[in-house]
Specification:
By secondary structure, this protein is mainly α. The chain has five helices and no strands. The two termini are 27 Å apart.
Length: 112
């Protein structure tokens, strides 16, 4: 449970940081990808569930943070949730790479 809270807190922190960045560009994705890679490396046994949580929370928080539309935020929540699923899938792929790196770097005896 603590792992999911860590992933969600990291997602909220990076999502809000990206939403309040002065200039959004490709470099905004670097900390997001680094977060997913680190989560996959640190939690190599369950990288997909943890990274999925991280990616969804990050994407959803970012979309809520940058929303400045005239319509109520509640009307946009389903679309933001759909984009959150895209963010979750991207984070899962990157975390899987981090997990593979952790397994590759582990001692040979631990792999058996």
């Amino acid at each position: 449970m603590l792992r999911f809270l860590v992933a969600a807190a990291l997602g909220v922190a990076l999502g809000l940081a990206g939403a309040h960045a002065t200039f959004l560009g490709w470099w905004t994705l670097l900390p997001w990808g680094a977060g997913a890679l680190a989560l996959g490396y640190l939690f190599a046994l369950r990288p997909l569930a943890i990274a999925g949580t991280y990616g969804f929370v990050l994407s959803f928080t970012f979309m809520v943070g940058v929303y400045q539309g005239a319509q109520p935020l509640v009307s946009r929540a389903p679309f933001f949730a759909l984009l959150g699923l895209v963010g979750a899938s991207c984070a899962m792929l990157i975390a899987l790479a981090g997990s593979r790196i952790a397994i590759w770097r582990s001692p040979k005896d631990a792999k058996r």
